[in-house]
Write a structure and sequence with these properties.
Elements lengths: L5 E8 L11 H27 L4 E6 L5 H10 L2 E4 L5 H13 L4 E5 L8 H10 L5 E5 L5 E6 L17 H11 L8 E3 L9 H9 L9
Parallel strand pairs: 1-2, 1-4, 2-3, 5-7
Antiparallel strand pairs: 4-6, 5-6
Length: about 210
């Protein structure tokens, strides 16, 4: 599939100490957690640009004037758009709809999964040849990436975002909208992301780009 036909969005929070990766502050401290957020954001954007050169948008939350956003625009050539919505689902739907205004297919990911590679995003896009939406579930019960050519709003409603129930609730929402698993939507093999101190240890053992625990 030609890169011009699809786009990738990355959802990221500004790496402000005390506001970024808060569940890891006990292990890293506020400054260390913010540094990790910056590192993960850059890694996610590099992965996205490898998958969709010239068609990557960074959807930002937190400090709208953070210098990282300017650096990403200048160094990686990504488009910067502020997140919009009252909860995560609304913000994700807005991001996908924004990308689909100018592209046939779109994928969306966050910054918490350094295991995600360009091939995973390509796999999501390929899955859209037969499905309207595709997901990469996370081991913790959420999902690390979603792709769509026809996103359904029900999948982005007021679910229990940030909890282990997200993927199951998403499946239920899709089924409730009349969608068929394996046909209207599909799921690729799951990955894991970095949310807890034990995830950091696991990532470090694998040599993933998370740095050292402070």
């Amino acid at each position: 599939m030609a890169a011009a036909r699809f786009a990738v969005g990355v959802m990221a929070r500004a790496p402000v100490p005390g506001q970024a990766k808060t569940r890891l502050i006990p292990a890293l401290g506020a400054e260390g957690a913010a540094r990790l957020q910056r590192r993960l954001t850059l890694h996610a954007l590099q992965t996205a640009t490898a998958a969709a050169p010239g068609a990557v948008t960074l959807f930002t939350a937190g400090d709208p004037d953070h210098p990282l956003w300017t650096a990403c625009r200048r160094q990686l050539g990504v488009t910067i758009v502020a997140q919009h919505g009252d909860h995560l689902g609304e913000r994700m739907l807005h991001a996908l709809q924004t990308l689909l205004r100018t592209h046939e297919r779109a994928a969306l990911t966050g910054t918490d999964c350094p295991l995600l590679e360009a091939r995973h995003l390509a796999g999501l896009m390929a899955a859209l040849g037969r499905a309207r939406m595709a997901f990469i579930p996370a081991e913790d019960g959420g999902y690390v990436a979603v792709a769509a050519r026809e996103p359904v709003a029900a999948a982005f409603g007021p679910l229990a975002w940030g909890t282990p129930a997200v993927m199951q609730q998403t499946r239920a929402a899709l089924a409730g909208a009349g969608w068929r698993a394996g046909c209207d939507w599909c799921e690729l093999p799951e990955l894991w992301d970095i949310d807890r101190p034990e995830d950091l240890t696991r990532a470090q053992r694998m040599g993933l780009p998370v740095g050292c625990v402070d």
